[in-house]
Description:
Blueprint: H1 3-17, H2 27-31, H3 35-49, H4 54-57, E1 63-68, E2 75-80, H5 83-103, E3 118-121, E4 124-126
Antiparallel strand pairs: 1-2, 3-4
Amino acid sequence: MDIEQAVNLAIDNVITEWLNDIYPTAFEVEMLKDQEFRNNIIKAILAKLKKNSIDEMIFSHLEYSYFPKKEAFDFRKAASIQPWDLIKYLSLVLMCADDIEAARPKIDENIVFFSYRFLPNAGFLFKGNNKK
C-alpha cells in the first residue's frame, strides 16, 4: 500500500471506528468528514511521513484516565491518543499491512484460530469487522 492510500485509509478508519472504545469521540474526528480539513491533514501527514524520520513526526504524550471496573475501588487505566497521532501511527502500520498479511499462515491451514485478518472495507480494517 502506498503512503497516500495508507493515510486515507487511516483517516477512514478513525472516522468509522473513532479513536477507541472507551472515550466518546473527539470533535476532530467529526472535522475529518470535511473535505478541506481532511485534505489539509493528509498534506501535513504526508509531509511528515515523507521525511522518513520518526523524530520528525512529533508525537504528543498520551493522556491517562482511570475507569471503574465491576467491583468497588477497582479501576482500569486507559490511555487516550490524540487523533492526529493515531492517524500518523496507523498510516505507518498500514504501509506494512499487506506484507504482514501475506506472510501470515493462510486461513485454510487452520493454524491461527482467533486472529484479525487485514481486509479493509468501508473504513474497517479487518475481515468481518463491519459493525460498530
